[in-house]
TrEMBL record, chain A:
Taxonomic placement: Bacteria, Bacillati, Actinomycetota, Actinomycetes, Micromonosporales
Reactions mediated catalytically: a quinol + 2 Fe(III)-[cytochrome c](out) = a quinone + 2 Fe(II)-[cytochrome c](out) + 2 H(+)(out)
InterPro entries in the cross-refs: bc1_cytC-su, Cyt_c-like_dom, Cyt_c-like_dom_sf, Cytochrome_c_Oxidase_Subunit
Organism per entry: Micromonospora antibiotica
Protein name per its UniProtKB record: Cytochrome bc1 complex cytochrome c subunit
Limits of the Cytochrome c domain: 63-235
Enzyme class label: translocase
Predominant location category: membrane
Pfam families in alphabetical order: Cytochrom_C (PF00034), Cytochrome_CBB3 (PF13442)
Keywords on record: Cell membrane, Electron transport, Heme, Iron, Membrane, Metal-binding, Repeat, Respiratory chain, Translocase, Transmembrane, Transmembrane helix, Transport
Domain of life of the organism encoding this protein: Bacteria
Gene3D superfamilies linked: Cytochrome c-like domain
Segments traversing the membrane: 255-274
TrEMBL record, chain B:
Region (Disordered): 517-541
Tagged with keyword Transmembrane: yes
Reaction(s) this enzyme catalyzes, per UniProt: a quinol + 2 Fe(III)-[cytochrome c](out) = a quinone + 2 Fe(II)-[cytochrome c](out) + 2 H(+)(out)
Pfam families associated with the record: Cytochrom_B_N_2 (PF13631)
Stretches that traverse the bilayer: 41-67, 113-132, 144-164, 209-233, 264-283, 335-356, 376-395, 415-433
Cofactor: heme
EC number: 7.1.1.8
Enzyme category, top tier: translocase
Biased composition (Basic and acidic residues): 525-541
Organism: Micromonospora antibiotica
The protein's name: Cytochrome bc1 complex cytochrome b subunit
Amino acid sequence: MTSDNDRRRGLLARLRGRPAARSRGRRRLGAAFRLIAALTLAGGAYTVFAPGVQAQENPPLTGAAAEGRALFDVSCVTCHGRNAQGVEGRGPSLIGVGSASVEFQVSSGRMPMARQEAQAMRKPPVFTDEQVRQLGQYIQELGGGPQVPQGNLREGANLATGGELFRINCSQCHAFGGGGGALSSGKYAPSLAPASDAQIYAAMLSGPQNMPVFGDNQITPEQKADIIAYIQESLKADQDQGGFNLGRYGPSTEGLAIFLVGIVALVFASLWIAGKS
Amino acid sequence: MKRRKFDVAAVPGKAAGGVDDRFQVATPLRKLLNKVFPDHWSFLLGEIALFSFVVLLLTGVFLTFFYEPAMTEVVYNGSYAPLRGTPMSAAYASSLDISFDVRGGLIMRQMHHWSALLFMAAIVVHMMRVFFTGAFRKPRETNWIIGSLLFWVGFLAGFSGYSLPDDGLSGTGLRIASGIMLSIPVVGSWVTSSIFGGEFPGEIIISRFFIAHVLLIPGLLVALISAHLGLVFKQKHTQWPGPGRTNDNVVGERMFPRYALKQGGFFMVVFGVIALMGGLFQINPIWYFGPYEAWVVSAASQPDWYVMFLDGSTRLMPAWEINIPIGNGYVIPPLFWPTVVLPGILVGLSTLYPFVEARQLKDYRHHNLLQRPRDVPARTAVGAMAVAFYIVLTLSGANDVIADKFHISLNAMTWAGRIGLLIVPPLAYYVTYRICLGLQQHDREVLAHGVETGIIRRLPDGRFEEVHQPLSAGDGHGHGELDYVGWVVPKKMNRLGALGPAIRGFFYPIEKPVEAPVSPGHPPVEPRPEREEIGSGDSRR
């Protein structure tokens, strides 16, 4: 036993030639002290040699981004945290999401969220377009990320290609008519009816909420323009050649209509005819 | 030369005489034209199905002039811009042409589809009428079986027609159908490959479904409908009990002219409703679905409503896969139970029901009089249970649309469907049974005590009591001696003495109401107008 203890006493103790009578508590205290000393030394060396903390704001924010930061610190900071690095259990980090994401979420009123739930709903937007741009600029300068290009987003688009791409990539969730559909556990693909060109573009780029990201190497900007054109010029502008579209929900509302309109009308007609004698 | 006199008035008679001379049809025709049909609004529900079938045939023939049942690939170049230049099957291209380039094509297509939905809906409503009134009892069990077969053949007709446009939605439906066939143990893969001519989708399925849809299934439908109507003719229509109506007679109207005229009018009404729906409501907008491609499936892809219960049962079925360790292992997929076994059970139960009930009640007599649903609580409750079962399944077939539009979690909808499928039908049974007993009780109460007059009388000792108008002389305690005869018991004062409404006319009165005396001292000057003899009431003559 004694030889064991000897071996464990450590180098310093052996150098000092003290007998192995030190209490266990004091030994622990010593170890802690040494650890703290080593950490302080390493930390100090890092502070001396590493670039200064202030370097993160270098180059400083542009005017718009500074405005955006002011808005962020008032409206978004609760969930997304200081410097947009996110708060555990409340909101994700926004580093690297880009202005495309801000454009989509804030201009459609989804952010700021009303409450934590399966999915943020579209609401009347809280911020003006200018404020959205400022917020986007701030997030963009903070961590970079995808941006919605300027200008006409459906320049030279081909409706037929857009339709084909829409049916392959979008209709699984947003449905053939763009009216949206259910996903699991209270999540859903929203209706495309109120979406603007920029919002659709931003959604494809940033993949908000449950939507997958359709980056430029999956769907090229030209194809995105085709899809936007199909949604805006064909699905939304369509006059529904067949008459009232019953919400474009497919056969479910058609089944409802045949009972509520057809059968009801004909039962009344049969009451009427049988009542004539 | 003496001109021969031409008597116009004698022309029809002479012509008819000439026809009878040659074909000897007067005697059988007289029998036919004098045949009596009982009249009640609920007897017209089956005619809705018959008439929408006629509309189906008419519009369907129009569609075949322009439809091309081929899966050869063509490039669309018609008037619908968002699809121009898209490669697609000839079937889909011709369906688009019908919708956009053939004059009147779209309304014909929509009328065809609406009348198909109406055909099935009317079959179901008619079937419920027959069930709840006990019209399926001996001797009409065969007709009940033919009727249930008509539902299933109509189901096939609808499904094959749904597949013909070859748009994204039809292709998705076909894919599911092929999956269902594949799930059948042992024979599944052979069934599928022989129907599709190989692996799904193959190149032959559209032409095969076309010939099934325009020749085989309609032929079968026509045959079954003829047998159905022939049996109604032979066995005579059932009637409600009432004054002068017994198990051995038929009270109603002659086939000609009144019944035939009414039926002709009703056909026009059905045709009109279908035409209105075809013109006003868009159905199956195939141009949004695009051509069928295996990798395209839209959200809210549902079958038409009468197939939706199978979609629902599939959605509710837990993923219970049965692995049988034979050879390399044999799998019975969970799809087999809700889509093959369940409809099999439903066909069996629905066709055998008349025999089951007769055996249960040991009732093997002929029944030509109908029963009010309240008088047979057990049957009515069983029917309500079946309807509840069907409704839960159908709603579950659209549960993603309901979840999305009403902001409910889809998972919650699925579980609500699973639990509802087990709980709602027994609940419907219990509630319906109690309602039937309550209605029976009230009928008996009115027969015993009379109609509530709404007059409250205060007795000298301060008690209040309601004055009842007894329906018969009674026994001194105010108890009547009338027996329940299986028909409506008057429950309001103005229904006394008349089985139908006191004032005739459905939308507006066609006779003047009798003027009430202004006061007992001033009786009306005019005599009370002659009223028609009280028969069995106009609503059920």
